Amino acid sequence: MPVPLLDLKAQYLELKPELDAAIGTVMENAAFVGGPKVAELEASIAKYCGVEHAVACGNGTDALFLIMAALGVGPGDEVVTTPFTFFATVEAIVHTGAMPVFVDIEPGTYNMDVSMLEAVVTERTKVIMPVHIFGQCVDMDPLLELAEARGAYVVEDACQAIGATYKGRPAGSLGHASAFSFFPSKNLGCAGDGGVVTTNDGDLAAKVRKLASHGTSKKYFHDTFGVNSRLDALQAAILLVKLPHLDRWNSERRAAAAVYDELLADVASLELPVSREFGEAVYHLYIVKAASAEEAERVMSALKEAGIGTALYYPLALHEQEALEELEGFVAPSLPVAESCDARTFALPCFPGITTKQQEEVARTVRGVLA
């Protein structure tokens, strides 16, 4: 039985009349850049995340960069983050001119190990950037306490975590500012690239908005250098249709994860994801860890042969990437937990609408290799 890693076609068909109508309205009005749909989306995202401001932009990577640029992050500064995430996180840091500093991760959650932060924070640390990887929030209270004591900003990379909570508070409302991605595969995805910055700081929001629009708040008058990072109205219209369904979809993801937890509980050589008690995860991905890279390859090959979607997340930790060797002064640290994940952590299909029968087929294929 074929099982996709993510079924975006089914999601479109579920909402087809609404999505087609929303797209048609934008086309008829010919307001393609900015305009009422983008403003409406910004207000809706701000309300959903429990913050005062949301600024739409071109993608999640830009959202991270724009926040740091607005905070004045630059050469000589350090940004502390995780080595276990998509390359965009470190890319955004490097493009500000700052130096990335990595702290190891927790087993099971794959999130930043906050207990190790104090050892790497220095007087040059301008930002601490937790990544709520795979849709589960980092343990934020001790992180925020340390950041306040050291005078550092906290920027949440919440690109995979819209709808996740920490002690009843939404991801995107926990730090000084946060970045979300609307890439199609995200829990709330558009039909291309898109992103948003959320914050309670009005001055920061205004700076982000200016930087995202060529450094101007009055057309043709520029008092700084910015970039071109705008969300298309078509994408905003699509996201406005999808947003009311997000909580239900996230609930379905949690239910699917619970099914896998039960189906695979007795597969001793496979580490299942750990869910922390302080919040609700949204399972952007359901990630399992094999005993070795070779074993992960065998399981993934069996899944692919059976027509079941899977992918490595991630084949190589960020501090091991060749690109970082080009950074003057960067010395790759030893991060044993992150390094133990290289080519061993991979995703099983976990998406809204996946059936128990499909999950049983996935589990049967995995067990056929490992059990």
Structure, described:
This protein is an alpha/beta fold and 371 residues long. The protein has two domains: 8-103 and 110-244, Type I PLP-dependent aspartate aminotransferase-like (Major domain) (Aspartate Aminotransferase, domain 2), CATH 3.40.640.10; 247-370, Aspartate Aminotransferase, domain 1. The protein has twelve helices and eleven strands. It has helices at residues 8-14, 16-29, 36-49, 60-70, 88-95, 140-150, 202-212, 233-242, 246-263, 293-305, 336-339, 356-370; strands spanning 53-57, 78-81, 99-102, 125-129, 153-157, 165-166, 169-170, 177-181, 195-199, 286-289, 345-348. Helix 4 crosses helix 7, helix 9 packs parallel to helix 12 and helix 10 packs across helix 12. The protein is globular, with a radius of gyration of 21 Å. The mean pLDDT is 97.
The coarse overall form would be globular
The number of strands is: 11
SSE-based structural type: alpha/beta
Strand order of the largest sheet: 1-9-8-5-4-2-3
Largest sheet data: 7 strands, mixed
| Count of spatially separate domains | 2
At the fold tier of CATH, the topology name of the largest domain is Aspartate Aminotransferase, domain 2
Look at the structure and give the CATH class of the largest domain: Alpha Beta
Which percent band covers the strand fraction?
A: 5-15%
The arrangement of helices and strands along the chain is HHHEHEHEEHEEEEEHHHEHHEH
As a percent range, the share of helical residues equals: 25-40%
- Could you name the ranges where pLDDT drops below 50 across 5 or more consecutive residues? none
Query: With helices defined by DSSP (H or I, 4 residues minimum), what is the helix count?
Result: 12
The Cα radius of gyration reads 21 Å
Give the termini distance in whole angstroms: 20 Å
Average pLDDT confidence is: 97
Task: Tell me which CATH architecture of the largest domain applies here.
Answer: 3-Layer(aba) Sandwich
The CATH homologous superfamily of the largest domain is named Type I PLP-dependent aspartate aminotransferase-like (Major domain)
